[in-house]
Amino acid sequence: MISKLPELTTTIFTVMSKMAQEYGAINLSQGFPDFHGDPLLVDLVERAMREGYNQYAPMPGDPQLRAQIASKLNNNYGSNYSEETDITITAGATQAIFTAIAASIHKGDEVIVFSPAYDCYEPAVSLFEGVSRQIQLRPPNYSPDWEEVERSIGPKTKMIIVNSPHNPSGMLFSKEDMEELQRISVKHQLLVISDEVYEHIIFDGNIHNSAARFPELAERTFITASFGKTFHNTGWKIGYCAAPKVLMEEFRKVHQYNVFSVNHPIQKALATYLQDAQTYEDLAAFYQQKRDLFLDLISSSRFKYVPSKGTYFQLLDYSEISSEGDIAFAEWLTKEKGLASIPTSVFNANGEDFHQIRLCFAKKEETLEQAAAILNSI
Ligand code: PMP
Ligand code: GLN
């Protein structure tokens, strides 16, 4: 048999974006902005290309960019990452996550994954013959039950994967959640992947509880991040992994024979751009305003919701409108009403259906208004 992943089909993001295109629907499914990022960043990429940064970048990434990242992490979270040994630039967070799993999961190792989860974790675990152990999170709050997590740990448990702010629910891990994660991972000697791609998209004055804030946790954690999410350029596919030297040495063994290094001019441009310390500051307010506008526009619709606390996704519960499954409902909404969303049951390992769809509000005001008009008409 050729297939190493016989159960897998095409990712829901490709399926829904394609359906949106076919039916001319407004696309609030796949998570990407429909507006441009900062034109300065584009100018800086052009400048880097003209200055000749068109050959291979150093294997772990541009040193100046790694230094910017280490100093951001250390300033924001009181950590102690070294740009030399602890940071590697990757082709998006996806490659960082894949590489961390490839570098550390052996056949039969068990990996705890929360469900619903972003869809790239489980296939990588399976590919390296690990076994996922699912912990189900539930609406309305999607909070983890750490006792259940601890009960699911056995002699083969090697890793736990967490993601806060959480895609798709918009839930945040509290300080107490992170302390529990730290306690459990230290006690049971687990590795951790902390997927923090939405670290700067966090609302209502909450702070991001990065794994980097918790020293004993940080010692065993691969933090993964995405510049695509942070700077509205998801197509640039650039991100990074931060981990202590012992973990990063293993990570780089895989990285150097997978991609070796990633897009050089974009790394140079980001290194220059990040010298401006203001760069991240407005992002949370920018997206909070979009969330608030969107929720305001649909406040009298028949959809129910808990406001997203972070990410640029909002879940909507449609159970007052239809008793159909969420895949059928999302298809109907796209084909018949012209609005594409993501059915959330596909993020649940057991396919459990909470009758919720996920909508991306990283969109221009007019797009959100058009989408709201459709949601209000149902
Ligand atoms: N993790 C989560 C939770 C995501 O939503 C995404 C999508 N951006 C990724 C990882 C992958 O990020 P990237 O596009 O940088 O590969
Ligand atoms: N992270 C984005 C989302 O959750 C999509 C990324 C992708 O298309 N693979 O919608």
From TrEMBL:
<dbReference type="InterPro" id="IPR015421">
    <property type="entry name" value="PyrdxlP-dep_Trfase_major"/>
</dbReference>
<dbReference type="InterPro" id="IPR015424">
    <property type="entry name" value="PyrdxlP-dep_Trfase"/>
</dbReference>
<comment type="similarity">
    <text>Belongs to the class-I pyridoxal-phosphate-dependent aminotransferase family.</text>
</comment>
<feature type="domain" description="Aminotransferase class I/classII large">
    <location>
        <begin position="26"/>
        <end position="373"/>
    </location>
</feature>
<dbReference type="GO" id="GO:0016212">
    <property type="term" value="F:kynurenine-oxoglutarate transaminase activity"/>
</dbReference>
<dbReference type="InterPro" id="IPR015422">
    <property type="entry name" value="PyrdxlP-dep_Trfase_small"/>
</dbReference>
<dbReference type="InterPro" id="IPR051326">
    <property type="entry name" value="Kynurenine-oxoglutarate_AT"/>
</dbReference>
<dbReference type="Pfam" id="PF00155">
    <property type="entry name" value="Aminotran_1_2"/>
</dbReference>
<protein>
    <submittedName>
        <fullName>Methionine aminotransferase</fullName>
    </submittedName>
</protein>
<keyword id="KW-0032">Aminotransferase</keyword>
<dbReference type="GO" id="GO:0030170">
    <property type="term" value="F:pyridoxal phosphate binding"/>
</dbReference>
<dbReference type="InterPro" id="IPR004839">
    <property type="entry name" value="Aminotransferase_I/II_large"/>
</dbReference>
<keyword id="KW-0663">Pyridoxal phosphate</keyword>
<dbReference type="GO" id="GO:0005737">
    <property type="term" value="C:cytoplasm"/>
</dbReference>
<keyword id="KW-0808">Transferase</keyword>
